[in-house]
Amino acid sequence: MIASALPVLDLTRLDAGAEAAAAFRADLLRATHEVGFFALVGHGIPDEVVDGAFAEAEHFFALPEEDKLAVEMTRSPQFRGYTRTGGELTQGRVDWREQIDIGAERPAVVSGADGEWAAAGEHPAYLRLEGPNLWPAAQPSLREVFTDWSDRCTAIGHRLLAAWAESLGAPADHFEAAFADRPSTLIKLVRYPGRDGEERQGVGAHKDPGVLTLLMVEPGKGGLEVANEGGWIDATVPPRAFVVNIGELMEWATDGYLRATMHRVLSPSGGQTRLSIPFFLNPALDQARPRVALPEALAAEARGVEQDPANVISGTFGDNLLKARLRAHPDVAAIHHPDLVGG
User: Fold this and answer.
1) How far is CA 154 from the centre of its chain?
2) pLDDT digits (tens, 9 = 90+) for 34-69
3) CATH number assigned to the domain comprising residue 330
4) Domain annotation covers residue 2
5) Does residue 236 sit within a domain?
6) Which of 155, 170, 176, 309 is the most buried (most CB within 10 A)?
7) How many structural domains is the chain composed of?
8) Domain-located, residue 3
9) Is the pTM of this model over 0.90?
10) In angstroms, rounded to a whole number, what is the distance separating the alpha carbons of residues 338 and 239?
11) What's the domain range around 62?
12) What single string gives the DSSP state of each residue in 65-121?
């Protein structure tokens, strides 16, 4: 493994004058062209808010099992709620973590009962993902804390989208139309229990299916590794910095000039745990990610979209997300969407 920290970018440079802002955009472009990941400091979320989010996550995972299972994801056609340890797959292999998924809180667009989606022919299948969260009655504060967290992360994400647009030679608002109406957001609260032995898959190697990920890792905890030059970078970052990475739709939008990067999480050793809070900011489910007409110099270095024949990237975000959710949670798919998985 390549022992290396990620590039570190300071978001406050966007407010430090034209020269500093231009330098930030150049560093942003370089990091996401060469690595696909970076650490973000100066993001403006106070330490006490970060620490409060981790305290809230720790509280949730310490709830009695029956309280967590009351909001189990198998109860949600929208793939929201709690997943017990070993309940999610990456590349067909079991991920060793427990988590709760919190999406944008909205009414369902289409609904089905017992897997029967009467209106399915009137809507694309991916609109089944739009709907309410499952909030634990035993911890009402969870909703307030992570609604606030989502708002804060969304604001940071929009600043980065504008900076990317300008760095790629487009107007600052180039991407905004796809996010302005009903953007797709997702927070995961994740707990990795310790385990010994050779099997250390916390999360298997994968690329994110969307646009932008802001990941906050419990201070002092490692385990995230990023593929780079035939090896793996140990993705260490300063405490309370975000780990930022791009997903497959950003690669698609730039014809591969920016490349979504494989990454994985190794389980902590026995007797330890690791908490993380990833946030995903993506277009509305029915929106196509706007492509960028790259300047000639950048277009010459665009590598094309890296397509897996078993997982073809679509420009419409909902198509990408639905494929990912059906693969990751086959139990939820079988219960609520049997027509989409052949059973």
Assistant:
1) 12
2) 999 999 999 999 999 999 999 999 999 999 999 999
3) 2.60.120.330
4) no
5) yes
6) 170
7) 1
8) no
9) yes
10) 43
11) 8-341
12) HHHHHTTBGGG-TT--EEE-TT-EEETTEEE--EEEEEE-----SS--BTTB-TTGG
